[in-house]
Amino acid sequence: MNPSDDDAHEFLVEWEKYAHLPIFEHLSSINYFQLSVQFPRFRAWSSADQMHGVADCLYEEAYELLTRSKLYRYDELRRTTGSHFVGVHYEDADTDFHLELTTGAELILRRQGSSMERFYQWYMRIMPEVHKLYVKVREYLERLSVPLRDIGPARAGFVFRFILYDFRTVGRASEPVKNSTILGSSLAKVPGVDGKLLDLGSSRLGDLGRIDLAVSRWIDAPGGSVREIYKVEAPGNLDYGALWVEFTYIAETRDDSSGKRQQPDFSEFLRRYDHPVTDFLRDRALNGFLSDLTSHVSFNSTPGLLP
Asked: Which domain does 92 fall in, by range?
């Protein structure tokens, strides 16, 4: 038996319990969040006439979301439009977010950076209502399709992005640490001038513009298999003193061991919004991966541009 939205909400603990881990002593900010659902790209949905109707649908569903989540302040809800999307922007100082549908049939809920505590409080208010919004938008798109058909997404995913900087050794004689040293625990070698692999160290940095690490792995989760992506970029700016970190949690079709393809249950994936932010982000990505990557150093995080 699948848990209801209210049941899933019980798994989201209050911020004080969520943030009890040592990693949050340094990770005080998130830089960007996005939830996206990719629908089939039927041309009928992207015509100018139909996009006006889609814009009305998004506004109405965002309005209902504000009511259900008890955020209210409907005067802060603004229509938005661009060459490739229609949507709404909720301009509230604490619970700001954008909701968009692109001409490529991708439904996107995104939020710019803030403190981790403010983001988590927003997540607790908004995410219990997102599945209802998804169902309504999906039903609207189904009514636009000719012939009328039952549609399903191609994929859906959560993205959590962080910018870390000012790495320093821990202790009385605190000294700056370059991002190559941080990344070196996971990426030991880089190509040299002749292409051959050489040990990654500070002496190599003059020839390197950016060092990237990206690893994905499959796990079993509510709704089926989910692909987790751990991505770290170590750019050369700020004298190699910053890291761009992105964690992605994606439900998409997977080939099993016999070559058969398994389609996720996207409704269940979106209902169980506790798994992306707790099991994946907090427990594995932050407390596991990032804690190991930054062991024995201190650092700062920023919700916006690097200072």
From this structure: 40-151
